[in-house]
Amino acid sequence: MAKGSRRGGRVRDKWRDKQWIIVNAPPAFEQVPLNYIPISDVNNAKGRVIENTLYDVLKQDPTQHQTKIFVQIDKINSGIASTIFKGHEYAKEFLRSLIRRGSSMINYVHEYTTADGYVFRVSATAFSQRRINSSKQHEIRLKMSKVLAERIPQLSLNEFVKEVTMGKMSSDLMDISKKIVVIRHVGIRKTKLISSPIQQVEDLSGSENQSISENDELSETSDNK
């Protein structure tokens, strides 16, 4: 009995069709090369969010592995992708190591706008040496609010990124918190980019176009009556 021939043609190797690109860090981190990744389409790759650690970016201190950095591909030119800072957060293992019995965790979350119009949701966290009452926790949150509200609107995007990831802003929060109670740790636990000036302009333009379209429809309806 003759053997049947295999159905179908040659299997296509999808990896051979992919293009490899270099992903650079955002301008705040001197645009150093971060990743070498495959993409199937340039347009689809735009907007892709890539996770690294702060150590991957700076390569200075092993403790920087405790901080995750998120960058988003903005443009791709000649095989090199430029990125924007999308946010950062403590690694889960590091955050768990900070939680201890008999102490209090104080969280404060608010949205702030940088001097050049970038809106970030900022999450600050403090850990006391011993458990503290709600009034002390509230006092710490008020101090955090005051420091962040005064500082962030004065910073450009690049300055903001450096201060929240490299410890400057955390140090400022520690200075005011330790005047209230004994503090074990204070830091900017997480940031998230909510909107950029470009997005705001695009949203405004879209709203204006929709308004013009609606006015045209109303005008046509009125003329037909």
What number of domains? 2
Helix-residue proportion: 25-40%
Task: Say what the CATH topology of the largest domain is.
Answer: Tetrahydropterin Synthase, Chain A
> CATH H level of the largest domain: which superfamily?
Band 7 domain
Write the layout of secondary structure elements.
Elements lengths: L13 H4 L1 E6 L8 E7 L2 H4 L3 E5 H5 L8 E11 L2 E11 L1 H7 L6 E9 L5 E10 L5 H18 L5 H9 L2 H10 L5 E13 L1 H28 L1
Parallel strand pairs: 1-5
Antiparallel strand pairs: 1-2, 3-4, 4-5, 5-8, 6-7, 7-8
What keyword list fits this structure?
8 helices, 2 domains, alpha+beta, Tetrahydropterin Synthase, Chain A, eight-stranded mixed β-sheet, about 220 residues
What does this structure look like?
This protein is an alpha+beta fold and 225 residues long. The protein has 2 domains: 15-96, no CATH class; 99-205, Tetrahydropterin Synthase, Chain A. Helix content is 38%, strand content 32%. The chain has 8 helices and 8 strands; from the N terminus they run αββαβαββαββαααβα. The protein has helices spanning 14-17, 42-45, 54-58, 92-98, 134-151, 157-165, 168-177, 197-224, and strands at 19-24, 33-39, 49-53, 67-77, 80-90, 105-113, 119-128, 183-195. α5 (134-151) packs across α7 (168-177). The longest helix has 28 residues, at 197-224.
